[in-house]
Amino acid sequence: MSNRVASLQRETRETKIAVTVDLDGTGTADIATGLPFFDHMLGHIAHHGLFDLTIRAEGDLEIDDHHTIEDTGILFGRAFREALGDGRGIVRMAHAEVPMDEALVVAVVDLSGRPYPVIELPLQDGLLGSMGADMARHFLESFASDCRCNLHVRCQYGRNPHHIAEAAFKATARALDAATRIDPRIAQHIPSTKGTLQ
């Protein structure tokens, strides 16, 4: 199996972001975005997905958190896709259900090369720390679009916004971990009848 690691940088007038991801890591996270709750959620992706993840993000937080979170999702998605390479041997499709006290969230992923996020989380209003609650949904959408994967995340039920967001990130991480694993039965093959995941 080749080294499934990617490092990317992106700079705009609104943000400056660098991401390194190792799909075959141990869950080590080194993350600083200027948004502590967002760092906490990204840490869950690393820890529960067993991805080594380094993220540095500087953004126009004096305006709000939107550009920083969206652009982090974009670059993380691109780095994740690059680290996958052609997807040879991966399981490709997976799901996970994660409870967090009263909340239950299910995440389903297909690393198909076709971007389509469906994120249903009851997090429209308010703040999670200094992060807008709805930005949890928007991050996952941005990630899926630039990772070029099919990602469905749905809150089955829940009341506490922190619990719902945390369960969503953990479930996404667990599903991505399962989908990126190498199946030794098809280690030399692309998991698609088309012969490509692009």
Write the layout of secondary structure elements.
Layout: E1 5-11, E2 15-22, E3 29-32, H1 36-49, E4 52-59, H2 66-84, E5 93-100, E6 103-110, E7 116-120, E8 127-128, E9 131-132, H3 135-147, E10 150-157, H4 161-180
Parallel strand pairs: 3-4, 7-10
Antiparallel strand pairs: 1-2, 2-4, 5-6, 6-10, 8-9
What do these coordinates show?
It is built from four helices and ten strands. It is of the alpha+beta class and about 200 residues long. It has one domain (about 5-185): Imidazole glycerol phosphate dehydratase, domain 1 (Ribosomal Protein S5, domain 2), CATH 3.30.230.40. It is globular. The chain starts with a strand and ends in an 18-residue tail after the last helix.
Overall mean pLDDT: 95
CATH-level-4 superfamily name: Imidazole glycerol phosphate dehydratase, domain 1
Q: How would you spell out the order of helices and strands?
A: EEEHEHEEEEEHEH
* Rough outline: globular
User: Could you name the CATH topology?
Assistant: Ribosomal Protein S5, domain 2
The number of domains is 1
As a percent range, the share of helical residues equals 25-40%
Highlighted features:
single chain, 198 residues, alpha+beta, Ribosomal Protein S5, domain 2, 4-stranded mixed β-sheet, 10 strands, 33% helix, globular
Short account of what is shown:
This protein has helices at 36-49, 66-84, 135-147, 161-180, and strands spanning 5-11, 15-22, 29-32, 52-59, 93-100, 103-110, 116-120, 127-128, 131-132, 150-157.
